[in-house]
């Protein structure tokens, strides 16, 4: 979910401390990875900038589909954690202790919390990660991508999702009296400016509407995350100012902005330098989740239908994180991820890495059933042949006896 940038852009942003909230799902059709893709990891693309992110999303999506992820997939994720509880986007040498050169971040850590909370039985790892997240909370109640970085809507929202996943009320996680909800409300724009959320203030403190940040913040302001997102009650779509805004009001305003931004086409767009605007599939999937969480399943149907018609090719090119995003969008909006525009998203996701244990067990059971069925028919066939042979033998004897 959230901000999608190229791996190179993300790396450059991280160096100057202003990285986007989450890495892009690297396309599986990209050139050969600069590092070996480890066993147990979903996807075949270079995991340098999104390994933990895409792995965690895959586990979350499988859990929501009532599948039990493969042990090796879970082990890969737990092996990425540093001793202090934090996660980096990817560690090529997880056996080596983390040092100052390992760029841990809030997004990888928070999404890993949600992934491990989904599979269960990793309380120690989850607790250490949450403790680390609390230790790097900013004084305004929010989080930046890197520890100490300025709070942004995306990072704050993914941490809210982590807190909710472990049963912690985000309103109770405070720094200098400020909660993550306070940070998000401060990043919301008034209705005169559309009611959106900004990613973070610019150098002059000005807020600018950002659709990606808005999709993230709507879910975060309602205290949910990728693991827990569920359709809410039908709500008003119009923007409404309040003084001060409550988190729920800010979320409603953000959803109203998304509804307008989706426009007549039913999808969000991304601007590429020197090129015409392109459909933003991932952001549209995030918007579906946000609209469903804030306004109910009906509020998300138009962009959901657009995704069903247009997003499967994108997911195939982009890999496991994209499939997982579509699974989460479909599930939140009341669609069937196993029949999404004629595509079984769950099956496609599972095929990018280790098969979930439940799915593997079902496949083994089916094979055993097929084998047993074949065996039964083989025995029946043998007995039929034997029976026919005996019948011919008896018939010959009878004919001989009448001579």
Write up this protein:
- This protein is mainly α and 403 residues long.
- It has one domain: Alpha/alpha barrel (Glycosyltransferase), CATH 1.50.10.
- 50% of the residues lie in helices and 2% in strands.
- The protein contains 15 helices and four strands.
- Strands 1-2 form a two-stranded antiparallel ribbon.
- Strand 3 and strand 4 form a beta hairpin.
- Helix 2 runs parallel beside helix 4.
- The longest helix is centred in the last third of the chain and has 46 residues.
- The N terminus and C terminus are likely disordered.
Provide the descriptors you would attach to this structure in a database record.
single chain; 403 residues; mainly alpha; Glycosyltransferase; two-stranded antiparallel ribbon; 50% helix; 2% strand; globular; disordered N terminus; disordered C terminus
Outline:
By secondary structure, the chain is mainly alpha-helical.
């Amino acid at each position: 979910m959230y901000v999608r940038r190229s791996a190179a852009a993300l790396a450059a942003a991280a160096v100057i401390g202003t990285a986007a909230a989450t890495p892009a799902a690297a396309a599986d059709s990209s050139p050969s990875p600069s590092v070996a893709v480890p066993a147990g990891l979903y996807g075949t693309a270079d995991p340098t900038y999104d390994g933990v992110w895409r792995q965690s999303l895959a586990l979350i999506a499988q859990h929501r589909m009532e599948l039990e992820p493969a042990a090796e997939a879970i082990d890969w994720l737990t092996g990425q954690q540093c001793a202090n509880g934090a996660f980096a986007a990817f560690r090529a040498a997880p056996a080596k202790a983390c040092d100052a050169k390992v760029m841990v971040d809030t997004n990888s850590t928070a999404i890993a919390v949600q992934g491990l909370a989904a599979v269960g039985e990793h309380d120690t790892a989850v607790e250490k990660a949450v403790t680390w997240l609390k230790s790097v909370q900013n004084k305004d109640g929010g989080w930046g991508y890197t520890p100490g970085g300025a709070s942004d809507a995306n990072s704050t929202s993914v941490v809210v999702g982590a807190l909710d996943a472990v049963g912690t009320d985000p309103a109770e996680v405070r720094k200098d009296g400020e909660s993550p909800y306070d940070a998000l409300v401060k990043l919301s724009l008034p209705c005169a400016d559309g009611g959106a959320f900004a990613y973070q203030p610019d150098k002059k403190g000005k807020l600018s509407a950002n659709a990606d940040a808005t999709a993230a913040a709507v879910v975060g302001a309602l205290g949910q995350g990728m693991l827990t997102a569920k359709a809410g009650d039908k709500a008003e779509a119009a923007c409404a100012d309040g003084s001060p805004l409550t988190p729920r009001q800010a979320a409603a305003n953000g959803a109203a902005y998304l509804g307008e931004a989706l426009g007549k086409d039913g999808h969000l767009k991304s601007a590429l330098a020197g090129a015409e605007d392109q459909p933003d599939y991932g952001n549209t999937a995030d918007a579906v989740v946000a609209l469903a969480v804030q306004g109910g399943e009906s509020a998300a149907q138009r962009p959901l239908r657009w995704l069903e018609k247009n997003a499967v090719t994108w997911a195939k090119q982009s890999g496991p994180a994209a499939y997982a995003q579509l699974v989460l969008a479909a599930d939140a909006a009341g669609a069937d991820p196993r029949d999404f525009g004629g595509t079984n998203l769950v099956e496609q996701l599972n095929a990018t890495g280790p098969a979930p244990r439940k799915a593997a067990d079902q496949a083994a059971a089916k094979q055993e059933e097929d084998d047993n069925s074949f065996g039964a028919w083989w025995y029946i066939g043998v007995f039929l042949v034997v029976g026919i042979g005996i019948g011919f033998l008896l018939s010959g004897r009878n004919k001989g006896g009448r001579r």
